[in-house]
Amino acid sequence: MVLAQAGAEIRAVLRNGEQLLLTLIIPILVLVGFSAIPLLEVPGRRVDFVTPGVLALAIMSTAFTGQAIGTGFERRYGVLKRLGATPLSRPGLLLAKTLAVITVEALQVVVVAAVALAMGWHPRGNPLWAALLLLLGTAAFSGLALLMAGTLRAEATLAAANLVYLVLLGLGGVVVPVSAFPHPLRAVVELLPITALTEGVRAVLSGASGFPARDVLVLLVWAVVSLALASRLFRWE
């Protein structure tokens, strides 16, 4: 039952034009645009700098923005209430959604990495550490998505999720180096989950650092706190 529901969730995402734009098209456009056009000064080769940020952006678009909006409207229209009353059960529904998110993210990582490699990206470092960061980022953003979708009205979730997406795209080190921000703002930005995910993956895949302990800790704190609040405050109807 869980696998069947996960398959339905995946098909719903891939058949939805707006969701597909958010999860695949926008990250690819950001990757190609900022790698090929000298819009900003970045350290090192552009594609090597931009690709980890786009991977983080793809994770955020699926685990946070897409999941928050989709779950918010499912809650509004009573879909969650009805599914939770089926033999699937509410924990099974959440597990199915989690599997769907991870599957879509795996597709995103493959597509983004393929385009980046075709553009001359040369990743180095330990891929297992990068995978750990991506999984922790997924947990952190999923917690934030469920917290937002389970407490706000669907229209408010739609507006807030898109606003947060745009703000974090600009402030999270995805395409603009964090070092370019003034020091007081930088101290705050470095504590954001998107910044920890972007900077951690970038450091690992550039081969410039060992285990990204600080970034892992930041993402772990966000994941634990957001998931704990979501489990406590989420309203199914």
TrEMBL record:
Keyword hit for RNA-binding: no
Localization annotation: Cell membrane; Membrane
UniProt entry keywords in alphabetical sequence: Antibiotic resistance, Cell membrane, Membrane, Transmembrane, Transmembrane helix, Transport
Transmembrane segments: 20-40, 52-73, 94-121, 127-147, 159-181, 216-234
Major site of localization recorded for this protein: membrane
One of the Pfam families matching this protein, by short name: ABC2_membrane
Recorded topology in the membrane: Multi-pass membrane protein
Biological source species: Sphaerisporangium rhizosphaerae
Protein's recorded name: Transport permease protein
Domain (ABC transmembrane type-2): residue spans on this chain: 14-237
Family: Belongs to the ABC-2 integral membrane protein family.
